[in-house]
Design goal:
The structure is a homodimer.
Chain A (H helix, E strand, L loop, with lengths): L2 E2 L2 H14 L7 H13 L5 E3 L9 E4 L1 E4 L1 H6 L6 H13 L5 E3 L10 H9 L3 E2 L1 E2 L12 H4 L7 E4 L5 E5 L3 H14 L3 E5 L3 E2 H7 L1 E2 L1 H18 L3 H10 L6 E17 L2 E10 L2 E11 L1 E7 L2 E5 L3 E6 L16 E7 L8 H7 L17
Chain lengths: 363, 363
């Protein structure tokens, strides 16, 4: 049951996680190096399905919190996640059976793999976002009634805190304030869950999906196939169903600030061969909305991915730069992320956007 | 042993606490109303000396955190302190024998009285500041080796957190960030101590001292005696030893901002009958330094109190206003607050002031 991740599988998973990071979530590259270090030391990353958990087991997620622009400059120590995980176990007075991602997109796909290898625990093949989101309350777990707290947070300086918040949005605000004090990046363990909650509230199979996205892009490179066609074919058989090219062009402007602990900004692209055809992407860590000549072509929680037009390699917002040739690729989110409750939490309204949500398929 | 506080004793204690608040610490008036409410409900405030604690007992301080300017607009609920106190008990897995102030100056003289009455516990007649200070690491407890954390913090919205920080200064930074998110005011319990630490590291008898200061000012009003002479006579027999009038004049300018969770600013006074004779006070919640025509006349941790020239009534910085006739009154701090370690923590260097500490007696 389950499977051990191979070094090649880890590479693929990291690339797929960068695609589902939709420009944010932090570059998985850094996290991949941390997992490789564990593997090189002889440790194993064992991935299991939510259906393989014993009934009544405690599962604790593990992730990093902060602005991706900070992760690039301040590398994770590799110790903080265990500190947060252990602090939460101690607070709950229970031992965890498995680690789990909250966010399969970006750096946070890698963090639970590293921690699981360190602790000798399995990783559950599921998460609470099916992509990356910038805030802690933006989780299917919470939308479906799981409390994010008590949560644990740790710094690189030996500080830990346990937050028990009145609701998940306040948990986010309190944890964000601590994260900023902790240097803009922190290690957290939130949404403690038992097996039944994991099965009921998570987006299933997302680590394996990341791995398959990475595999698809890698194979397309080897066979000189069109990476976007390959991706679209592969996604058609998954809970994500639709993947489609939204725009191809050149980056002509990027505006990016790290404010309130987030990377916020906008990117502007001109279509290949037609400078009058313009796509603008707005982001808060992740890409939130894409408008082509003023008309919306994709909006959160559907995924807006910025991929290198040659190779299909995902480009995070912190690496966006003038002159890059990009393909903007849309992916539809799974049904569990499109309920009215889910959209209120992490749809356009959750980000203060004035637009109504329109599914990618209808645009 | 010990004594029950009378309604008159509470009034006196609140006024004395405002004197030792040195312009900050929040106006005890608000806290006094909360204690009066408990007394009116038939509950008792029982004050005991540190020497009356049984050996090995757990003592938990209780206080509010935030800018005095916020306390004026957002009144304490009266419930948050119990939430923080209980959260810390639960985290430690122990039951507290007594409540204690960390800060006998200002509002935080009243908070432990209210909580002790609510919980039916005694209050220890001692604190960690002997006055008011703006930051959590500024305590004789910490200077003498007690860890401020684990500490508990609670909001008015049902949120609690337990912070375990690498040192007391980081505890302050993390708790301050949460306090700002909690609306600029929070309820905390920090520096959990046993009897031996309380006896060794606290400034003793400060609640009773506050009560005697208030009593002295009240009696001076009744007998039409000079309140400052009366205060000076009374202090001469205490660990504070010296009280002296530094300046008498009129407020001509006040500059005050609430920034980073603190009330910061300056006040300018002109001497009665000589507008060319000017005193300037700099404050961060509390008065830090007083300079007369550019020459320092008192500096932290000695106390710089702004008192109404007619009545001796203390005026907090948030109430300073143009035209007030004030007496600036200096009080020397007890020896436990003047060691090199103490001065490094809450002397001029602790506040980033360039001046060297000179005891009030030598100025």
């Amino acid at each position: 049951m389950g499977y051990d991740l191979t070094p090649q599988g880890l590479h693929d998973l990291a690339e797929g996680a960068a695609v589902l990071g939709t420009g944010g979530g932090g570059d998985p590259y850094i996290g991949r190096l941390l997992v490789e270090k564990e593997m090189a030391a002889g440790r194993t990353v064992h991935i299991i399905g939510a259906d393989e958990l014993p009934d009544g087991a405690l599962v604790l997620p593990s992730s990093m919190m902060g602005a991706p622009t900070v992760f690039v400059e301040k590398l994770p120590s590799g110790d903080g996640n265990a500190a947060a995980f252990r602090a939460l176990e101690e607070h709950l007075g229970r031992t965890a059976h498995a680690v789990m991602p909250t966010e399969c997109g970006g750096l946070n796909s890698m963090i639970p793999l590293m921690l699981a290898a360190q602790l000798g625990l399995p990783v559950v093949d599921a998460d609470g976002m099916g992509r990356a989101f910038p805030e802690l309350q933006m989780q299917t777990f919470g939308v479906l009634g799981v409390s994010g707290s008590p949560m644990a947070i740790a710094s690189d300086h030996g500080d830990t805190a346990i937050i028990t918040a009145g609701d998940n949005k306040r948990m986010e605000q309190l944890a964000r304030a601590l994260t900023i004090q902790m240097g803009g990046a922190s290690y957290i363990s939130d949404y403690p869950m038992d097996t039944a909650d994991v099965r009921r509230t998570s987006v299933h199979g997302t680590l394996t999906l990341c791995r398959r996205i990475g595999e698809t892009l890698r194979e397309a490179r080897v066979t000189h196939a069109d990476p976007f066609d390959a991706l679209t074919k592969m996604l058609a058989g998954t809970i994500y169903s639709l993947g489609t090219v939204l725009f191809q062009g050149k980056v002509v402007d990027v505006e990016r600030r790290t404010v309130d602990g987030f990377a916020r900004g906008r990117a502007r692209l001109e279509a290949t061969g037609d400078p009058g055809d313009v796509l603008e992407i707005t982001f808060q860590n992740e890409h939130l909305v894409a408008r082509r000549n003023g008309t919306m072509v994709a909006i959160v929680p559907d995924l807006i991915c910025t991929l290198n037009t040659e190779s299909g390699a995902p480009i995070p917002t912190e690496s966006l730069a003038y002159g890059q040739r990009l393909t903007v690729y849309g992916i539809s989110t799974p049904p569990i992320m499109r309920t009215p409750e889910a959209l209120a939490c992490f749809g356009p309204a959750g980000f203060g956007l004035p637009d109504a949500y329109v599914p990618l398929e209808d645009l």
